[in-house]
């Protein structure tokens, strides 16, 4: 019998280390909105993609952990004004996707690495904007302070893990992008709208850890 509450950081860590759905290196086609757009994603997979990493920061908060999100500034060249996880391109000096994700979290929101415990990876997310994204699942210890970089991040906020892992909050929608019909997830949370790449990663997290 499991000793940890379902949505605690401890249980998140345990599930992250024992994911369902096959090896992360091979499972990207089988999850999230990749599964909703098999033909489009196959085309993206054939492109020359730049490697990137994002941190999925799950904050210890008793029985109901919280997940940190950012609101990107409206002046950024890509994904401006969207809700995102801290992250960005993997630089040559980054020894691993984990290092890149932790570095980016420090640069974007001032989250110090002493509070971050990288735990596991999710399958890649292939973005039509030209990136192969590795989501890094991490537990964040309480006591941290955020210092937002105003050139990249307009705001940062937390959403309960229990809300995100409730499939009734995962709405599927459709839009035409560059002349192609795309299906995607969106997750309304109060006045916020989590959608696109970020919602696809959240959906993959749900499918890998909580189904």
UniProtKB/TrEMBL annotation:
Domain of life: Bacteria
Listed cofactors: Mn(2+); Mg(2+)
Pfam family, one: NUDIX
One Gene Ontology molecular-function label: coenzyme A diphosphatase activity
Keyword Manganese: yes
Keyword match rRNA-binding: no
Domain Nudix hydrolase per the UniProt entry, residue ranges: 49-181
Keywords noted in UniProt: Hydrolase, Magnesium, Manganese, Metal-binding
Name by which UniProt lists this protein: NUDIX domain-containing protein
Species this protein is from: Rhizobium multihospitium
